[in-house]
Amino acid sequence: MSSPPLTGARARAGAFVGFVRKEVFHVLRDWQTLLILVAMPLIQLLLFGFAVRTDVSDIRVVIVDPTPSAATRRLAERIAASDRLILQATVPRLRDVEERFKDQSVRQAIVLPVDAERLLTESQPLAIQLVTDAADPNMGSIMQAYASAVLLQWHAEEVRALPGGARIDIASRMRYNPSLESVFLFVPGLIALILTIVSAMMTAISITREKEMGTMEMLLVSPLRPFQIVLGKVAPYVVLGFVDVLIVLGAARTVFHMPLRGSVTLLLTECLLYIVTSLSLGIVISSVAQTQRTAMLAALAGLLMPTLLLSGFIFPIDSMPVALQVVSNIIPGRWFLLVVRGIMVKGAGLEVLWQESLILLGMTALLLTAGAKRLAIRLD
Questions:
Q1: For residue 60, what is the DSSP state?
Q2: CB 333 within 8 A of CB 307
Q3: 285 contacts 205 by C-beta, under 8 angstroms
Q4: What does 85-139 look like in DSSP terms, one character per residue?
Q5: Which of 87, 144, 174, 278 qualifies as a cystine partner to 134, CB 3.0-4.6 A?
Q6: CB under 8 Å to 323, separation ≥6 — which residues?
Q7: Are 136 and 56 in contact (CB under 8 A)?
Q8: Which residue has better confidence, 103 or 264?
Q9: Residue 322 CA to its chain's centroid (Å)
């Protein structure tokens, strides 16, 4: 004998439970969504937990010591023993480290006076100049505080046994950004971020939209070859990305009064190279993604967040764990940011930035070849 059908509230509750079960099965069967739901929080936690740090470590320091002595060698030993500072060299003149500041192999220079040991033993004031790379103003302030603390400890040890003591005068000089303007940090990073979004994400979504709507097949029956279709799709974004570069640079100059100390031609050429790099990333994404939603999520997770967190845009790479520093090497934005900051803030030329430019060029060739080949095969 069959049971009577459910009516009223019990029927509605049963229908609701059935609907929830259907939704649960739907989520479990969609492994891509499930992976995003499970993996994304873990990836975000690890990235933000390790990358978002405002402390600075591994500060590369040079001591400028015209007259080396036992006292100044003890200063070198104290710096070498520091957890934050790394002594790169001791040189006789400040001009010996000019190029090292531009290529960021040195972030700070401690300039000692002539006859520093004699001034100490005679209890005379000791004037020390502390030159700090302040292209990143936050890092510059922190580096200055660390070095000043080490200098004060060293000086206190040296004059402890002397009668009358002596005074130490630390004159700080913030190189490239004496007023510690934060715009020097954010404008180059925003250029990298904008170009990544416009070039990579929009290209990936644009090509994927054609595939999703089925209009790609209509293009395939045209006389155009697959690589011409890809070229035609990405060409407008090259122009759009370059226009964005001009707008951002114009606003940085006129609104924020940011200097452009290097070559304008070199800067625009490097920007054009990075646009092509980002377009290549978009082609790679579009060759894998089948829907616009997947393309957008892949671009956000694979490009936007790493560019924001691991390129040195906001947080110093040197302070991150070694594993994240290794990962940051494959982020194109990291190398582009070094180039843009080098040209705009430090006035560096290609003779200093050739390594970063070469890395970007290699990445572009690799991505463009892999992405275009894979997409052309899928279109065929």
A1: E
A2: yes
A3: no
A4: EEEEEEES-GGGGHHHHHTTS--EEEEPPTTHHHHHHTT--EEEEEEEE-SSHHH
A5: 174
A6: none
A7: no
A8: 264
A9: 15
Report the amino acid identity of residue 103: D
**Cα 87 from Cα 85, distance rounded (Å):** 6
- Coil, helix or strand at residue 61: strand
pLDDT at res. 192: 86
List the one residue out of 154, 82, 144 whose CA is nearest residue 109: 144
The residue count for the chain: 380
Cβ count within 10 A of residue 177: 21
- Token duo for residue 285: 């994404």
Edge-first strand order for the sheet with 85-91 is: 85-91, 59-64, 108-111, 126-133, 168-175
Helices and strands of the chain, counted as H and E runs: 16, 5
Tell me the pairing of strands 126-133 and 168-175. Answer: parallel
pLDDT greater than 80 at residue 135:
yes
Q: How far apart are CA 224 and CA 49, in angstroms?
A: 49
Paired residues of 87 in beta bridges: 61
d(Cα 356, Cα 336) in Å, to the nearest integer?
Answer: 7
CA distance 211 to 74: 68
Structure tokens at 104: 């960021």
> d(Cα 82, Cα 146) in Å, to the nearest integer?
10
What is the helix (H) or strand (E) element at residue 1, kind and residue range? none
Residues with Cβ within 8 Å of residue 296, at least 6 apart in sequence: 201, 204, 205
Give the integer Cα–Cα distance in Å for 125 and 116. 10
Question: In this structure, what token pair is assigned to residue 346?
Answer: 């430090």
Q: How far is the CA of 76 from the CAs of 62, 63, 69, 73, 193, in angstroms? A: 9, 8, 11, 5, 40
pTM over 0.85: no
User: In this structure, what token pair is assigned to residue 88?
Assistant: 């790169």
Residue bearing tokens 């303007």 = 181
pLDDT in tens, 4-35: 665 677 777 777 788 788 777 777 777 766 77
